[in-house]
Amino acid sequence: MCTCLSWKTVRAGVIAALCLLAVWTARSFAVPAETGLEDDSPFAKAESEWTDARAKELAASEDYDSYQMSHAAAREIARSERQRVDREMQRVKAAESALKAAVDAKRESELDALRAELDERWTTFRKATDQMLEDSRISTKASEEVLIGDADIQAKMALSREAEQRLLEAKAAAAEKANAPDALNARLAVKQLELLRGMEAHQWPILRGHWAAEFVDDAHQAASLAKKIEEMETDAERKKALTQFAAEQETKQAETAKVVAETQKRAAAAEPKLYALRAAAHGGLPLLPPEEWDYAKARHLLVRAGFGGTPDEVEKLHKMGLYKAVDYLVEYYRQPGANIAFDPVPPLRGDPLHARMTVRTMTDRAVSQRRAVERGQVGALRQAWLRRMVESPRPLQDKLALFWHGLFASQDSVVQNSYTLHKQIQLFREHAAGNYGAMLYGIVHDPAMLRYLDNNQNVKGQPNENLAREILELFSMGVDQGYTEKDIIEAARALTGYTYDDATGAFQYVRALHDDTEKTIFGQSGNWTGDDLVRLILERPETSAFIAKRLFEYFARQDPEPEIIGSLATVLRVNQYDLEPMLKNLFMSAEFYSPRTMGSQIKSPVELVVGMYRDLGVRQGVNYGAIDGSIQQMGMQLLEPPDVKGWRYGRAWINSQRLFSRYNATASLVRTGATAGGQTGADVFALVQKGGCQDASQVVDFLVKACLLRPLTPEKRAELVNYLGELPPAPEWEAKRAELLPRLQSLVVLMISTPEYQML
Amino acid sequence: MNTRTIATRREILTHGLGLVGLGATLPDFLLRSALASKKADGEAPIVVALLLTGGPDGLSLAPPYRNDDYYRNRKVLGIPASDVLKLNDEVGLHPKLPFLKRLYDEGSFAAVLGTSYPNFNLSHFTGREIWEAAKAGVAAGRPGATGWLGRWVDHACADAEPTRNVAVGPGTLPLLLTGLSHPGLGFVSPDSFRYHGDRSEQGLKAYAKLNESPRETAADDLQFITRTAVDANSASARLGELAERYETPVTYPDTQFGSSVRTIAGFINGGLDARAYYAAQGIAVFGGYDTHADQAKRLPVLLTELNDTLAAFHEDLTRCGNATRVLTFTYSEFGRRATENFSGGTDHGQAQPMFVMGGGVKSGVYGVQPSLTDLDERGNLRLTVDFRAVYATILEKYLKAPSEPILGGRYPVLDFIG
After folding, report:
1. Looking at CA atoms only, how far is residue B233 from chain A in angstroms?
2. What local confidence, expressed as pLDDT, does residue A9 receive?
3. Furthest CA-CA distance within chain B
4. Please, what CATH class does the domain formed by B45-194+234-407 belong to?
5. Is a pLDDT exceeding 90 seen at residue B38?
6. Nearest to B286 among A413, A668, A754 (CB)
7. Which of A211, A306, A292 is nearest to A259 (CA)?
8. Global pTM?
9. Rounded to an integer, what distance in angstroms lies between the CA atom of residue A454 and that of residue A139?
10. Nearest 5°: CA angle at B210, between B206 and B211?
């Protein structure tokens, strides 16, 4: 009795206190608008309108929060009441059993006491039940308030957002009219607000859905408990009341379940809009309308943002839809990495005593032994990297690492240290879609690069400008873009003393060799170091434009219009040089899927060979030494770009000699380059079987779909069908596998010995 | 871009070249290369361009050995006057270039001093593009981009034969040789210069069909590749045969560059109808002449290779009576700075000497040695001769071609060709 009373008091107290608190906090935030605005500000009116609307929104928000709190309390109470009823129910049952046992055992003396006990249990149980019913109804009512009550806050929020939008719009228009330097940022602020509204439109239904799902659960719990009580109850009136309560709660449950479904639908509909809004808020390129997404575009995405794939793999991306497909490829770190180990061996050190050996051939031998270890390791490194490209479930990571290797090019023949080169490639892989600033910072501390561009010889008083020049010209700003010859010399001075330890292959800053005096770079004076140089470079607008252009050219096409580069560079800057948002914007953009971009690139040797294996689904038994040799014949040797400018993409890959190399080397790779499951060469047979082909022309069409970006002309297609010749009926293929595989391989060889296959 | 259709068997038959017996068994494109072989140009002049990759140090190649300022700027790297192979009272040649000195004495070696251009660029890549295009703002590999020798081949050869301009060696096809109707051929070795995919009759027939020009409007680069494929297939047999069967008693340095120049000699002595050749020294080998450090060690190695290769080339051409119809010149993306740096090397600079030798060349030292005291604000030798004057001279006096339309401007004609 005593506990029951005090519980009730606590319950009432909690609700009252919470409501008071809610009202108080709501009021305390509803302070009057600030009045410090200057009267002559052209935005004074819009500012004050927004401030008012904002204050109302905040007040409504506090009210809304108070509903939430009182509802949470009511719900908590109803739940405890249900638990209490459950406990009382057990006690009634226990008292009934005790009584029955005493009756059965004829323990007459105990019966009265047990009957009195049972009556008392029933009384308590019924009281608790009544309380539970009442509190459950209160909780239900509070739930309804929560679901209905967001109309007010949403209306206030909309007014506030609209007022803010008018204000930002006016500011942006004024800045644009005045051609102010921050006009772009002012415009982006408008777009960011639109994104915020989009995010709210997405979050509201999720929030509502969350509440609604809880109410569904509450109603279900209450209804089933009421039914259990009703079964025990003997009083007809009470039975009727319980049945009615259970029905009420079930109706509520069904209604609220509909709300859950509806909110899920709304959230799902609001989500895709966020991608376009986010692109606009970052100042990025307009996106491809998602309904224009098709198989050909999915294939284009996979060959450009990766190295290609089988028709099955393309179809998987196609089914994801544009946005999810791009997220899937760019957020590659959500996939497990390929388990391809490469254990680098630190460089062998020459023994100083070698120099004292008088027999020249002995010292030469010691040097050539060391060099042989280096060469072996460089070869192993190249092959391990190629293997990643062919097998990795994260193709974009290695496609990007290859991009960075071409941008921050170092040649093994100059560096002559496989260990530091390995660490450099790891740097590229780790930051592949990370942050360009971090990458540039890494590069001025990268032993292989410091060696490659002679910075170990760049010392106080006698600067060697090789590294400084290439950083500005090739790594960050672009040739003749916003720097002078004087800047190069000053930058070289900033980089003095940045060197490496020959023995360990680790970065070293030698203070005694650093020029510790003032330098003036881009008109800014200070006692700059190489680290300062990176910061100064990142502050230059030319840098974001240069990196955006290089990435666009690598992934999309040559000669982008300045507006395209401007957009992508803005995305980079807005995101402090984080690459992921820019890459997503690029891969989702309409420009990326325009006819000018699709199928417009000439495959690099790596793209040609790795892509061929990816397209044919060859993942096992690949001879990576053969691949490495082939791409070298075609003019591309990993870790040995032609010079510090890296590889020239596009037409530079093609001349008559190289075209023969491409045709011949790919032909031999199809026939002999991979051996798995007892097959010699690429298992074209397995691929064709998966394609469900029935005859020669279907085989040709399927392989064209798998390997080429566009259908061939009817004449060329007919030539291929004719070349393949008659095939036995499909059911006999499996038995004639040994005979068919070489024929299918020859067909693929012919198909890839075409100008069309050189494009991607 | 110009497009061209493949000669059909009918066209060849109507030309009546007596190839009918061959025609019955050979696929079209092989027939067509047989056709090309009949059109060798006898005694037409040939130009061989040699790129010295990386920007050689002109003050070491042609040291002004009488000038104290030279030794003041080059405390470590200065070539002692006693070692210099003297050409005149002012300049001489690096001691590792004895063949050029001999050629000078024989009467057909010219050194043109102080070549460069206004508003010069010290990027390896932009610099090379400017030297090869002979104008600024032409980017290699872009549709429509041409080099001055490519434009000359377009002018000199009304046909569109693929073998008129040939680059030998593993690098990319240089902008220098690229013309509009003559995109140029790149060649490394005979075996790698033919299709191996399926050499059965049926295979070659299908292959030829698939490598024909696309009928519909294709992407620009696809047309470019198709055209390269058509040209490569038609030249495959002839170039391969010439290079493979070439025998010479002359020994070339056993290096990539030596072997490239040997192949060029094989083409010339074998009567290929090419008019312009290109090979590069030092591509992808320790940065070639880009001697920011250790110049005293690296430069002699490169110059020995250059000297011995040129000597062998000259002997080989003379052997077959071709020395007078071949003019050879060297060029690079820029010179190097007047003062040496702390690393025992030299940094990118402006003016550089050009070497021209062979057909029509009159021995002498031309141009003006840039001052070693009046340097520009960055310590560079100032230009005294616009490099396009050297090209204009080659065009006007040796090739008898109008230089103005080819170079896109009028430049003075020098005296180094008689």
Report:
1. 8
2. 52
3. 73
4. alpha beta
5. no
6. A413
7. A211
8. 0.75
9. 75
10. 120
